[in-house]
Specification:
The complex is a heterodimer of chains A (about 600) and B (about 220). Chain A is built from 23 helices and 17 strands. Chain A is α+β, with helices and mostly antiparallel strands and about 600 residues long. Chain B has a domain of about 70 residues: 2-Layer Sandwich (Alpha-Beta Plaits). The chains are: A alpha+beta (about 600), B alpha+beta (about 220).
């Protein structure tokens, strides 16, 4: 018997040998690392030899729903994809293939179905010779030929794959052409709209020649204290059902609400992060989308916020397109950051990105970098195979994205991201290559609120990521949510008597004190840090691009904003100090590791 | 159909080609599903109606249905059970282009499912193995007398929404709405007010209730593609 709330079981599939195993998770790992992102980090640390090539058969691609996933706990459907990143590298390589771990989570219905099938996670290793998909129905697991689907965009794949799976409601996730073509910034998609977007998860999946996973299950994990669980469920459902302004705002605009507010606050990525405010933001914001694009709201499993918006775009860019978006990230990275305010064009860019299965954040960042390089004269259209790339140009952006996905001409290099491009271009272009550890920054700009955002990006364990907190408390909290499978957008409702830890206690029958719960978050973040430290990442890698120190905003209320170099250094010192990490190397001190039950990492 | 619209559930697919449109008019309204252009001759029935424009596909209805209809006794207390949503009597079908179609028993006045049941009526109660509850008008199975022939499931799939599915082991019909004893939990808990327990004309036209048909109507309505 495993801890209640878990099966204590992983499904492991080796695509080289075709071997399928069901393995036990030690109870101590469940207690210490909870599940999802945390358990994934522990498994990766335990099993991967330092310096493992992320593209090699040895790398493990994990799909890790947390212990909340499968239960109808509102907004708790998330699955964390954990693997070794094909995107990151340290300044001084300890191994040829030094890289951080990667984690990317996605909502929807795929994670719950993994749990219904009787597993707490899927671990994929090896590499198939031909394209395959994995089909799981409870105990029945098979590796099926996917040759006919290879090359197919995610939208078309989603439309036809399910009709061929046989009876019952399967849930699935899959890669598009970007993952198949081993584009480093490829992602994994489900329901043609939701992405485990960041950190090259789709590239790793493609390297295993794995097109898709389909899963269907008839089980339900037990809970330890059904009465207490039911009472908590009633309370938390009730708190959303009050439909206060916050609930209604999520439904009205989803994350796209932040397009306008972030622009007003000067925290938006605009013109390759050169500005924090976009003059034309209202052209692509919530109101414009409500009026011109969005047709319906849709939700993940048991979610009362329905932040996703299905829209219809018409206009110059091909046929009518039905697709989700824009959200804050997609709307900023392919909109504001590229100075694009043509809503139909933006919609087409987002659709193509998702259809290709490419990380839209890194893609938008990379195209923005190339636009700036053109503007500065560091490259010319010859470098871009004749594309006259300039700010606001939808057609050129579409073409560049296509080239990245099919690794055509300049696309081969551009698909590797801004770090690789800057190395090739030289001429000081590294200054405005907006990445940390090789992973591109997301849609939140740094200078306004830099005490927070500079720490978010510089210290994040998967390279630059906006979902990382700006201090140890925020970072550990994000670890806990990602490990439980809870969505960060709904976190503010889970407080006091319906706090996550009470629900976890009811499910598992293990009482989680506030101190123990927070400590688990710290443990998980530190585990990830030790994985990266083992790969050779040090304090010098925890930085932000030079542009933020040297460039001042010129537009809007926050004109003049930039990051003070000394202030950043001090904030980083304080951050390490608060965590008990060395200010020189960034390594967690031995006493900290022991206290967190991570003595094996010393 | 495959290239334009795809469901994630296909157990009725082989029946679909045999479904034909009825003569009666069925119109989708902005709220609560259906309006009936046919004259109302046979009174009203209380059943669950869906506003397909409001549904977000969150499947909360599936959760609360299966929780309530799979209650368990713990220490002498009846508690909602744990719920794999596949055990729910209301099912949400997802389609691409993006629409979600909740589907549940319509309590059809003419009940093709009961009509199809080959079990002789009980001489005392007059009930077949599938019969209508006197109070709530729900469709109820008598598992003792049921022979598991699946005729009801086939009738529902051919003539109506295809709600009834045979139990894989016994063949007995599953997924008939219980109305949760008169307080349907799906209606009570729908976060988006997409479900309503309301009076409807008993002889309303139900010929087009199959999720695939409804999905096409909604796709046309939302996206016109």
């Amino acid at each position: 018997m495993s801890t209640k709330g878990y099966y204590g079981r992983l499904l492991e599939i080796d695509l080289s040998t075709g071997k399928i195993e069901k393995t036990r998770i030690p109870d101590s790992d469940i207690r210490h690392f909870i599940g999802g992102r945390g358990l994934g980090a522990k498994i990766l640390y335990d099993r991967l030899r330092p310096g493992t090539d992320p593209m090699s058969p040895e790398n493990i691609l994990m799909f890790m729903p947390g212990p909340f996933v499968g239960y109808p706990i509102p907004s708790s459907s998330r699955t964390c994809v954990v693997t070794k990143s094909p995107r990151t590298s340290p300044l001084e390589k300890k191994y040829d293939h030094s890289s951080t771990l990667s984690y990317a989570n996605m909502g929807g219905f795929f994670g719950p179905e993994i749990r219904y099938a009787g597993y707490d996670g899927l671990l994929i290793t090896g590499k198939s010779e031909k394209p395959v998909y994995i089909k799981i129905e409870d105990e029945n697991v098979s590796i099926e030929d996917a040759t006919e689907y290879w090359g197919m965009g995610t939208d078309k794949f989603d439309k036809i794959f399910h009709s061929r799976l046989g009876e019952g409601r399967y849930e699935s996730c899959y890669i598009g052409p970007a993952g198949e073509n081993l584009v480093p910034m490829a992602c994994i998609i489900n329901t043609a709209a939701r992405a485990a977007g960041r950190g090259g998860t789709g590239c790793v999946m493609g390297s295993k020649k794995l097109k898709a996973i389909a899963v269907k299950g008839s089980h339900m994990p037990e809970v330890a204290d059904l009465k207490r669980y039911n009472e908590l469920l009633k309370k938390i459902r009730g708190s959303f059902m009050e439909k206060d302004d916050s609930v209604m705002n999520w439904r009205y605009g989803g994350t796209a609400n932040a397009l306008s507010s972030s622009s007003g606050n000067g925290t938006q990525a605009v013109k390759n992060y050169g500005e924090g405010t976009f003059a034309e933001i209202e052209e692509i914001g919530t109101e414009a989308n409500r009026k011109k694009i969005w047709k319906r709201d849709f939700a993940c499993y048991s979610c009362q916020l329905a932040c996703k918006k299905s829209g219809l775009a018409k206009g110059a860019y091909g046929a009518q397109i039905v697709h989700d978006g824009p959200e804050y990230e997609t709307g900023t990275m392919l909109g504001a950051n590229l100075m694009i305010s043509d809503l139909n064009g933006l919609h087409k860019l987002i659709y193509d990105g998702d259809d290709y299965g490419i990380d839209i954040i890194s893609t938008g960042n990379t195209i923005g970098f190339l636009m700036e390089a053109m503007e500065r004269g560091h490259i010319d259209s010859g470098f871009l195979d004749g594309i006259e790339l300039s700010w606001g140009d939808v057609e050129s952006s579409l073409e560049l994205m296509r080239k990245m996905v099919y690794r055509e001409g300049i696309g081969e290099l551009a698909g590797k991201g801004v770090k690789a491009l800057a190395q090739k271009i030289g001429k000081g272009s590294e200054e405005y290559a907006i990445h940390v550890k090789g992973h591109e920054l997301a849609a939140w700009n740094i200078p306004v609120g830099s005490t927070y955002w500079a720490i978010v990006y510089s210290t994040c364990n998967r390279g630059a990521c906006h979902m990382n907190g700006g201090n140890s408390r925020g970072q550990d909290g994000a670890c806990l949510r990602d490990s439980l499978g809870a969505c960060s957008f709904a976190s503010s409702w889970y407080k006091d008597e319906v706090h996550y830890r009470h629900i976890l206690s009811a499910i598992t029958g293990l009482e989680w004190s506030e101190e123990e719960f927070n400590k688990a978050g710290t443990r998980i973040y530190t585990m990830e840090k030790m994985f990266n430290y083992r790969e050779g990442f040090r304090r010098i890698d925890d930085t932000i691009p030079e542009k933020f120190f040297n460039n001042k905003f010129t537009y809007g209320e926050h004109s003049g904003a930039f990051v003070e170099r000394d202030e950043f250094k001090n904030n980083l010192d304080n951050y390490y100090e608060s965590r008990g990490w060395s200010k020189d190397t960034s390594r967690p001190e031995d006493n900290i590791l022991r206290d967190l039950n991570l003595e094996f990492a010393i | 159909m495959e290239d334009t619209i795809t469901t994630r559930k296909h157990s009725r697919r082989h029946f679909l080609s045999r479904i034909t449109y009825g003569a009666g008019g069925l119109v989708l309204l902005g709220s609560y599903g259906f309006s009936i252009t046919r004259d109302n001759k046979n009174g009203v029935i209380r059943a669950i109606s869906v506003d397909f424009e409001k549904c977000t596909g969150c499947r909360t209805c599936e959760s609360v249905c299966s929780e309530y209809n799979n209650r368990v006794m713990v220490n002498g207390e009846m508690l909602n059970g744990l719920s794999n949503p596949a055990r729910s009597n209301i099912r949400v079908y997802h389609f691409n282009p993006d629409v979600d179609i909740p589907s549940t028993c319509a309590l059809c006045e003419d009940a093709p499912c009961i009509e199809a049941c080959p079990v002789e009526p009980d001489p005392v109660t007059g009930r077949k193995a599938l019969y209508r509850d006197d109070k709530l008008h729900t469709i109820v199975n008598d598992p003792i007398r049921c022979i598991g022939c699946q005729s009801c499931a086939i009738a529902c799939a051919e003539k109506r929404a295809g709600v009834i599915h045979p139990d894989p082991e016994t063949g007995n019909p599953m997924f008939m709405c219980t109305l949760c004893g008169g307080d349907p939990q799906c209606v009570k808990h729908c976060p988006y007010d997409a479900l309503k327990y309301m009076e409807m004309p008993a002889d309303r036209d139900l010929d087009k209730l199959a999720p695939e048909k409804l999905a096409q109507i909604m796709i046309d309505k939302f996206y016109n593609v």
